[in-house]
Amino acid sequence: MALTLYVAAPTPLHRLHPVTKLGLLAAFVVAAFMVDRPLLLVPLAAVIAVLMVLARALPNVRRLRVMFLLVFFFTLVVWTFFYQSVLVPTYGGFLYGLSTAIRLDTFLATGILFLSTTRVEEVAYALGRLGLPYTMGFTLTLAFRLVPVFFDAALSVVQAQRCRGLEFGRGGVVARLRRFVPVIVPVLIGALRRADRMAMALELRGFNSGRPRTTYLRARAGAADVLAGTLAVATVATYVVLWAAGIGTLAAHP
Amino acid sequence: MTRATAGVASAVTVRDLGCTYAGATRPALDGLTCELPAGGLAVVMGATGAGKSTLARCLTRLVPCFLPADLRGEIRLLGQPIDGARVGALAGTIGMVFQDFEAQLFSTDVTQEIVFGLEHTGVAPDQIPERVTRALAAVGLAGFEGRDPTTLSGGEKQRLAIAGLLALRPPIMVLDEPTTDLDPTGRAEVFDVLGRLRAEGLSLVLIEHDTAAAAAADLLVLLRDGRIAASGAPARLLADVDACLAAGVRPPDVCRVFAMLGLVEPPLDVTAAAERLRARGLVPRVSDEPVSRPAAGSAIIEMRGLGHRYPDGRRALADVSLSIGRGEFIALVGPNGSGKTTLAKHLNGLLAPTEGRVTLEGRDVAGLPLETLAQRVGYVFQDPDHQLFAATVAEEVAFGPQNVGLPAAEVEARVAEALAAVELRERDADPFLLDKGARQRLAVAAILALRPDVLVLDEPTTGLDFREQERMLDLLDRLHAAGRTVIIITHTPWVIAEHARRVVLLKGGRIRYDGPLRPFFADEGLAAEAAFRPPEVTRLGRLLGCTPLSVAELVAWIGRGA
């Protein structure tokens, strides 16, 4: 069961400095928040789509295509029917729904692109370079490493309890919630036991050795980073200008 | 890699070591004295609770730094006392690997996994690439740089954990049951690595349950109740069958054969043992018992053309047809990834076939409700901790019967019956405080309370010491004798030979062999495909022209002939 999205490929995007990638991620999210008109969001989505191809991350999009479609259509339908009224579709609602749907899918795609091109260790490194304490970045790494492990454990526990006649899909909400106790307890206890062993293994590997820590992962910023950084700044600047000028907001559709 | 052990005579020196965990009344270790010469291999054996892991943790200072305890005596590593040292500060002196390999990996990338320890011990970045390359090469993982550890096999993960420590260049390495959770292939990989490390001059302390690993040791230490029951050359210690059994260790088959025939100084090598027996004219004059397919009752479970594909398209099972008779005792074997567990999970509907069908007494399993299946085919998972959740032992066992809607009085009767069957008396004990063997038996009781006709157990003896294994196997034999159909997934050759009546070998999702035990063990090619060697006594017997399944059988055959 592979839950990680990282695509090991030697593309220019992968080679960018982790801080640059974090900056690009932030730039696209901020830019997408600045405007509401669907037409203005399309270029952002298009740029991400092109980058996605460059990063060879399309298989990840295919893997998560259901999520993209669900987010898109659910958002569109909900806003169309509930934006200015209740259960009455409006054109204004449709437009707003369309832009929100594009925006959310763009966020999703940007996030996937980031995780497809950046190892968790690089994320931790980038956060460290931005001043976050090392332990916070490391905790993030550990979380990514452990998610698939606990996911597997949870699957086993669910099956083990089914073998004892535990039926999940029956009864009212309370009864259903109570039925998760036999799943949650073993998963939690297992996690605690493993966390204990992990703490020991960490120290055995020299965590807290008393010697100053060195950093191997030393990304160097190059020309590509300057280019990417310029693109990020220009994008944010353009969209802030659009927002300030009022061009990005939807015209009223009574 | 050259190790800095030259000039130091002793790698590990332990003098009068005592350890009492905070809150414990009884010491975990008491008066331990032993010495491991530099470059040597010490194997530590003993029953659960004998103090093996405590010793390992004392050597690495996990006790008392992590697990508070009152320590007495002295430990020296390479001649230097270690009291007062922090665990992390010893990282370049002594490394420690343990059973749970998942807990020893912290990264999402193989290279980063090795880099981790190097960064934390302050190794200069320009030296790191070379250290990574060497550490990965030392464990046979060259070329794995950049791989995601979640995609590795168990054996590869454990070797990666070893490499992460090796990169720190410790001259001493402690391994606490490093292969318990691995299949035979993974075990062989790890032992191969240990052999190479030893050849390079590392001093190794290995905690193991299998005496096969002890034969090559310079020093064998048998622990019993926190004290050294015996220590010395493996050949001498293992020859004392009674002392091994008293320490909760399964003696090598060859030693048991020699002891039963009244011979002294058994060799630890099967070929040499066969020579000795032949020289003395002690050869079996009875050929193998005729191969007869055990009389099985009517079929209870039938699989016809069963195939299974995972959602990602990978094929796990192909064209499996199997008829399981009422009252059979079947061992399901094969290397990891061969489809054993996938097949077993079709028996009670945990997985649905993507091709073919599975029937229980003629009725399609896919159409049977969960309550019915749970009461007909019981499935005990490998790790008991994946199902224990209740506050008391009795509540744990009552869970299944309550789920299928039995009345309170009946639930109570089932609880009493199941606990009696597995010999657990502590009704009100907290399941999480029981030792591993008792937790495993409790997991079986929780399934027995549903009174299934068929009992499927995934590696029921893994991680248990010899006494607990015997206890679990006795339980299975009793259930089998009482008419239950028992199916076990196992990697342990002697467990198959001494308890099962039929072997089903899976390979690449297909049935490679299905039949009685003797022809299976007699065919060395088959055993190799199953990725394990036949039991020692069987291999000894093969050299003498027969295929015994147990020590008692070979000795009887020799005795009858003499």
Which architecture of the largest domain in chain B would the CATH scheme give at its second level?
Answer: 3-Layer(aba) Sandwich
Q: Tell me the series of helices and strands of chain A, N- to C-terminal.
A: HHHHHHHHHHH
Radius of gyration of chain B: 25 Å
The greatest inter-chain interface is formed by: A-B, 58 and 70 residues
CATH superfamily (homologous) name of the largest domain in chain B: P-loop containing nucleotide triphosphate hydrolases
The assigned structural class of chain B equals: alpha/beta
Approximately how much helix is present in the residues of chain A? over 70%
CATH class of the largest domain in chain B: Alpha Beta
Number of domains of chain B: 3
Strand content of chain B is: 15-25%
Kindly name the structural category of chain A: mainly alpha
Oligomeric description of these chains: heterodimer
Q: Reading side by side through the largest sheet of chain B, how are the strands ordered?
A: 6-7-8-3-9-10
Cα end-to-end separation of chain B:
54 Å
Number of extended strands of chain A: 0
Report the sheet with the most strands of chain B, covering strand number, pairing sense and barrel closure.
6 strands, mixed
**Shape call of chain B:** globular
Might you state the CATH topology name of the largest domain in chain B?
Rossmann fold
Helix content of chain B: 25-40%
Mean pLDDT of chain A: 87
Taking pLDDT < 50 over at least 5 consecutive residues as the criterion, the unreliable ranges of chain B are none
